[in-house]
Amino acid sequence: MAVKAPRTERGRRTLRALLDAAAEEFGESGYHDAGIARIATRAGAAIGSFYTYFDSKEAIFRALVADMSRQVRETVAPVILAAPDRLSGEQAGIAAFLRFVRQHKALYRIIDESAFVAPDAYRHHYESIAEGYAASLVQAFGAGEISEGAMQVRAWAIMGMNVFLGLRFGVWDDDADPEAVAAAAAELISEGLRAR
Amino acid sequence: MAVKAPRTERGRRTLRALLDAAAEEFGESGYHDAGIARIATRAGAAIGSFYTYFDSKEAIFRALVADMSRQVRETVAPVILAAPDRLSGEQAGIAAFLRFVRQHKALYRIIDESAFVAPDAYRHHYESIAEGYAASLVQAFGAGEISEGAMQVRAWAIMGMNVFLGLRFGVWDDDADPEAVAAAAAELISEGLRAR
DNA sequence: CTGAAACATGAACCAGTATTCAACTAGTAT
DNA sequence: ATACTAGTTGAATACTGGTTCATGTTTCAG
Fold first, then answer.
1. Which of A152, A179, B21, B121 could in theory staple to B42 by disulfide, Cβ–Cβ 3.0 to 4.6 A?
2. pTM of the model
């Protein structure tokens, strides 16, 4: 088993501390330069305790990816769903995503790096988002809100947009106004570039 | 110096062979699992010869990123410029990019991984593309082809779309028709999602 | 209280691999 | 021909850092 479940309260605390410490360490140093010893130290635990809960460096990394994947979806999805229609939801979703990225830069890096450390986890993350996204596009089409088109392609295109905007205006640049970026992006998605 | 210039024809051949071998090795195994010894073997050279031309593993990786960054731009940019207008150029550009990715999956992976191995190189790659992209959008706006809007944001958004479509329909999925994907994406960029 | 299971500890181990280096060969200019 | 420079070689080195493990401590059910 990659991750061993603790049986006491003390164990749960240590496990939680290790996960939090790992998020910081991986986020700051990247997978390669992150060290088990440093993760343990950050968590106020010994190296041996690390191996009480995780089989390997990769195991804790995968656990983190799953954890964050869930966090992103649980943060953004409700915001989109709360909107009155798909297109206004778009803007709210992008803004929510940008704010999330700002507050969790480390986590964002980790998901990106999973493309190389744990490709299957990475793929699963984006495929599950794309699936939900495509489904909601189909629904919006049914409601007459959006035009006909290849929803799979659209879902991936919009996801890529979000990810790059998150990188550029969330991780790299702290000053840009998330709402303004989201507005420009949402307008692109809704109306396209063509002059009217 | 990170990369030492050869002084003879023989040296240039070896350097070239090492770069090609490194592209294969990094592409197949990723930065971490790639080995200098294996790169040298693939190139038909000795380990020592590797260090005749490159200071370190990271040095050859950076050299590759720069090399590929150039290749991508030199492949896609002319296709876009050859188009009669910005919007039809968009579709041609996406299709060209998808085809490029298919033919150079390894290279594509390397640029992506540079985000973690050589963040400055990664940033430089996308910033230089975004810059050219934004400039051409401004020009298209001047020509009355596209609407007003934040060109920086648009450039990054469209770049992100391309990258994700490249990943999903270029690297992961060989079967999808690049032209069809490009058409759907270009239509999204030009017209947006809104039903008319 | 008591014993067993869960948990904690960190020095030591060891595998993998980037890098060095001293001896050698090929090429070239004078 | 000679000498000098560029290029080649791969075993040995050096070092990093993930993982193991024997020993000690805490928790808690009965």
1. B21
2. 0.91
